[in-house]
Structure prediction request, 349 residues.
Amino acid sequence: MKRDRDEAEEEGNEERNKRKMEIVWQTPAHPAQKQDYVFHNGKRHVRPYYFEFVSHVNKRWEGKTIVDLFAQEFRGRSRDYYVSAVKCGRIQVDGENIPVSYIVKRCQKISHFLHMHEPPVMACDVEVLQNEPDVLTVCKPASVPVHPCGQYRKNTVLGILQAEYGLAPLYPIHRLDRLVSGLLIMAKNPAKADSFRQHIEAGLVQKQYVAKVVGVFLDAEVGISNGDTTLKGKAACTKFTRISTNGIHSIVLCEPVTGRTHQIRVHLQCTGHPIANDMLYLSDDVVNRSTLGTTADRAAALSGGSPETSCESHKEEYKYCSEDFSIDPMCTHCPNLAPNGVLLAVNVE
Prediction:
C-alpha cells in the first residue's frame, strides 16, 4: 500500500514538473503572433500567456522587504498572493529565489512572472492607409492603445501590425488615447522618427480632431485657454469650430494649439458642451473623480456606462472550447474567467 502511494506521488510530481517545463515565459522581446488573437462577439481577445515583468529597485523601494514592496507599490493583488508568489518563485530578485523576509537593494532586478489576461478591444482592423519606405500611416480604431501600457501588450496597434502585417519595428511619433480613433503616423526607423519629432516641436505639424459634443455648439470659432479651465500651471489653448448640429448634438472641429493631458476634453467641458460619450467629463453625470482617478475607463465602469461602441467585424469567428482553458493555480484572474471559456479557442479553418 505504501509503495502504491509512493508511486502515485512520484507520478504526480512528474506531471507537475512536466507542466512547469511547458511554461514559456515571454518578455517584451517576444513578437505578437496572429494565432495569439481570438475574435468573439465583435471583440478581439488575446489568449492568456505567461509573461515576465521586470523592474529595478529605485530609491523609494530600497530597504523594504520584497513582500512589503509589492503589497505597497502594486495593490492590484493581495499581500497573501505576494507571499505565495515569493515562496513558489514567481517573484525573483536578480534571477534567484528569495525568502519573504528578503530586503531589496538599490538597482536590483526584480522579476514578477504572471499569467497575463489582456482586456479585449473592439475587433476592427488596424487599416494600413499608406506604406512608404520610411513612414507608415494607419487608421487607429477606438479602444485600442497605440503601444504596450498597463495590461495591454498584444492588444495594441503595434502588436496587431506586427502580428497581422509583419510590420516591425515601428516608432510612433505621436499617439492617440486608447478610446480615440484616427490617423496615426509611425516611422520605420529612428532617424525618421527624430525628424518628425523635430517638426512637431518646431510647430510645423498641426493636429485636428473631430468630436461629437452635447448640445448646440456656437456657430463661430471659439478659443479656450487654461485661464478659463482647471488646467492650472501649464499653458493650454484649443480652437473649436462647429461643423454641424442636429439640435441635440454637434460635430466640432478641435485644433489644439498646445498639447496637454485631457486638454480637448477639459476645454469642451468648459464651453458647456462635453464630448457626448465621455463619462469622465460629462457635466450631466455626477461622478466622484476623487475615487475614479483620471481615466475615462474607470469613470465609465463605475457609472454603468461604456466609452466603447460596438463594431462589426468581418473576421472569421471561432468556436470556443471551455475544456481547453488551462487554469494557472497562481493566477488571480483564471478562477473568474474559466467558467465562461471565452479566451481559448479552436480556429475554424
Notes: The chain has nine helices and 16 strands. The radius of gyration is 24 Å. Residues 2-22 form the longest helix (21 residues).
